[in-house]
């Protein structure tokens, strides 16, 4: 029998499955009665209903008995409240929210403790999470609405960063759109629970050690994935991922495993917006800006204030790219790139492989594969310094002048057909590396079909990269 004051710490009373702090059983769906409902906190806040819960906390809709106003009350879950670090983090969130004064940040009204359980009272936010608008099947946000939402979001970050506060877990679930009387969206940023307060190094504020990964993998910056100290640039990177998702309808990086996703954040260059997802018609200025925001190096990203200004300029069409001649713009961009950005790592200057064309950067290596193999191959190449783009589907991808190699990593039995299709589709003089051959007979058939080289399905990443680099140097 469970004698804990929190019934969610015991087994499900219906099927016996451990609840691990959840109110709803993941197996049978039984909802555990919450003993806090109807309770009055500090003689003035009546807990009326459960609004939602996450891994660490549970939020209630409550009524201020004297004022008759609805508020939100957030409790730290009992299984976390027993740990000193998480109690300190919960207190720090209240301190941060009290410190920040901005209409786009939830206001904290009160803080207290009930029988050892910490809680904070906040304004009740009614609206729609940005994540709900990004969900499959939803009508894409209009370009005008997208710019307006991100302008407000960046305004919130300006205020937070000016106060030395880094959110560290920005994602669509934490961005709420609240309808206003004028019909416009009002952005509210939620959940500063793992924020970092840079107060000059005073004790008690840096509650996570270097080497500890905190955040949501889809929106984590490269430096967060490495577990090193983060700066405000990590929040800017998360905004860049969300902006990419809002415009293209897909994330810039996707993988089945979290480790693969983090590797892509650290090593894989983001794809072009105009070639991703719904293939949005974006200006060169916006394409370039998003690329800068998603830079692997924090120092190369604009700060929140600069990004807000440049995004506003792009939305009005008053950015430099809108006025410059296309050819002059391309020459300027190429002149500013480092050698490593103009060529594939590992190729000597005498055999430099350009990966740019008039429409912007295009990877010199194209991977034609079935998901999730395409993502795995692309990630493997990126770890070894080779930038690549992926192509799905049964039709051969059309090469451009910048396509220097094709990697075919297909399902068993269709490799030969894909090589033949590629050769007929413009790859007669482009080296083709085929991965997935299992037998010597298949290897011979693939070479006869036009493959430049073949790697077994069991080949290591190093072997694949060596073969590809050899083909790039050879050029056939």
Please write the CATH class name of the largest domain. Mainly Alpha
Residues in β-strands, percent: 15-25%
Instruction: Give me the count of strands.
Output: 18
How many helices? The count is 15
Gross morphology: globular
- The CATH topology of the largest domain is given as Transferase(Phosphotransferase), domain 1
Largest pleated sheet: 6 strands, antiparallel
Strand-pairing-aware structural class = alpha+beta
Distance between the termini: 72 Å
When the domains are counted, the total is 4
CATH architecture of the largest domain: Orthogonal Bundle
Helix content: 25-40%
Taking all Cα atoms into account, the compactness measure Rg is: 26 Å
Mean pLDDT: 80
* Name of the CATH homologous superfamily of the largest domain: Transferase(Phosphotransferase) domain 1
Poorly predicted residue ranges: 199-213, 339-362
Spatially, the strands of the biggest sheet line up as 1-2-3-4-6-5
């Amino acid at each position: 029998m469970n004698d804990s004051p929190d019934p969610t710490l015991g087994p499900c009373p219906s099927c016996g499955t451990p609840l691990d702090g959840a109110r709803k059983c993941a197996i049978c769906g039984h909802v555990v009665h919450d003993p806090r409902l109807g309770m009055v906190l500090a003689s003035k806040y009546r807990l009326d209903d459960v609004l939602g819960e996450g891994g660490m906390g549970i939020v209630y809709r409550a009524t201020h008995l004297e004022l008759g106003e609805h508020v939100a009350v957030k409790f730290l879950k009992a299984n976390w409240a027993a740990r000193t670090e998480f109690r300190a983090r919960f207190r720090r969130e209240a301190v941060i929210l009290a410190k920040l004064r901005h209409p786009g940040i939830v206001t904290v009204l009160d803080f207290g403790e009930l029988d050892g359980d910490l809680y904070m009272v906040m304004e009740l936010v009614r609206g729609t999470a940005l994540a709900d608008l990004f969900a499959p099947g939803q009508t894409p946000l209009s370009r005008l609405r997208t710019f307006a939402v991100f302008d407000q979001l960046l305004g919130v970050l300006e205020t937070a960063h000016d106060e030395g506060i880094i959110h560290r877990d920005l994602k669509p679930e934490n961005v709420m759109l609240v309808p206003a009387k004028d019909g416009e969206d009002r952005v509210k940023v939620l959940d500063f629970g793992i924020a970092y307060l840079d107060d000059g190094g005073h004790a008690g504020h840096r509650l996570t050690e270097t080497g500890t990964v905190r955040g949501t993998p889809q929106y984590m910056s490269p430096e967060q994935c490495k577990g090193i100290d983060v700066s405000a640039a990590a929040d800017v990177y998360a905004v860049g991922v969300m902006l990419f998702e809002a415009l293209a309808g897909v994330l810039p990086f996707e993988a089945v495993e979290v480790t693969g996703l983090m590797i892509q954040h650290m090593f894989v260059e983001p794809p072009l917006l105009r070639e991703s997802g719904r293939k949005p018609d974006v200006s060169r200025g916006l394409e370039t800006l998003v690329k800068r925001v998603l830079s692997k190096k924090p120092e190369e990203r604009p700060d929140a204030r600069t990004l807000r200004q440049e995004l506003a300029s792009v939305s009005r069409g008053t950015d430099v790219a809108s006025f410059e001649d296309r050819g002059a713009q391309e020459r300027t961009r190429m002149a500013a790139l480092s050698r490593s950005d103009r060529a594939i790592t590992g190729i000597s200057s005498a055999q430099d492989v350009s990966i740019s064309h008039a429409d912007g950067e295009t990877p010199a290596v194209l991977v034609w594969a079935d998901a999730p193999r395409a993502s795995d191959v692309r990630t493997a190449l990126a770890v070894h310094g080779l930038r690549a783009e992926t192509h799905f589907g049964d039709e051969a991808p059309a090469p451009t002048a910048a396509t220097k190699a094709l990697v075919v990593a297909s399902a068993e039995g269709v490799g030969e057909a894909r090589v033949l299709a590629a050769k007929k589709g413009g790859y007669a003089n482009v080296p083709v590396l085929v991965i997935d051959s299992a037998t010597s007979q298949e290897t011979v058939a693939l070479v006869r079909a036009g493959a430049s080289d073949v790697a077994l399905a069991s080949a290591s990443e190093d072997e694949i990269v060596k073969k590809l680099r050899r083909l790039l140097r050879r050029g056939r």
